[in-house]
Amino acid sequence: xxxxxxxxxxxxxxxxxxxxxxxxxxxxxxxxxxxxxxxxxxxxxxxxxxxxxxxxxxxxxxxxxxxxxxxxxxxxxxxxxxxxxxxxxxxxxxxxxxxxxxxxxxxxxxxxxxxxxxxxxxxxxxxxxxxxxxxxxxxxxxxxxxxxxxxxxxxxxxxxxxxxxxxxxxxxxxxxxxxxxxxxxxxxxxxxxxxxxxxxxxxxxxxxxxxxxxxxxxxxxxxxxxxxxxxxxxxxxxxxxxxxxxxxxxxxxxxxxxxx
Length: 260
What we know:
It is globular, with a radius of gyration of 22 Å. The protein has helices spanning 3-9, 13-36, 43-50, 54-57, 64-90, 96-101, 107-111, 115-129, 131-138, 152-169, 174-178, 187-194, 206-227, 238-256. It is mainly α and 260 residues long. Mean pLDDT is 86; it is low at 97-110. The chain has 2 domains: 1-62, Orthogonal Bundle (Arc Repressor Mutant, subunit A); 64-256, Tetracycline Repressor, domain 2 (Orthogonal Bundle).
């Protein structure tokens, strides 16, 4: 690339200033979110904290919904990053399917934590560390807010889901997943699952989709209970309860999928 091409490829001063102002607004909105929760988020409050008018803020975010969409997208991306970082930190963890096929786990693998469990614990840690952001994603929906159809929030959710799909099913073939031991799905449900639009869950056989949603419900349900204070009575034992439940869940999933 020539010097002229490098200069033309670099964002202009105006573009850099706009990007910096946009980031400053997002930072202020995140600070307000952390202080007041999702229900307290307002363009007027964000603008006031930055010493600017609402009209000026509209040059960067034309509506509250556009600001909320950016916050939701970033929260999902941050959550996905936390889950990915958790599994990256352990490298190649134990593989229940491989160990079972070899005649049982080794003694070391008995106490090792499966990568799927590590992923769920990354999810839990992020939610506990960022309760207001977690509430923005999974709490009471913001009044009058509707995420754009197949927009950036949808893409961010799919990215996070892909991490869990890989840790759940990455070592299995489509044929194995299609033969997973599940209660018989009704024809209507199977047809619906198989007709989902391309991307995400539609890429898996119907039994695998049912297993995925069941696992997601178990993990997410425990995290919601903890983040919103419903299991405070367990104190420091919440982490152990979560790990035991997730290990049992991971083992049950592996038992349901036929080995090669």
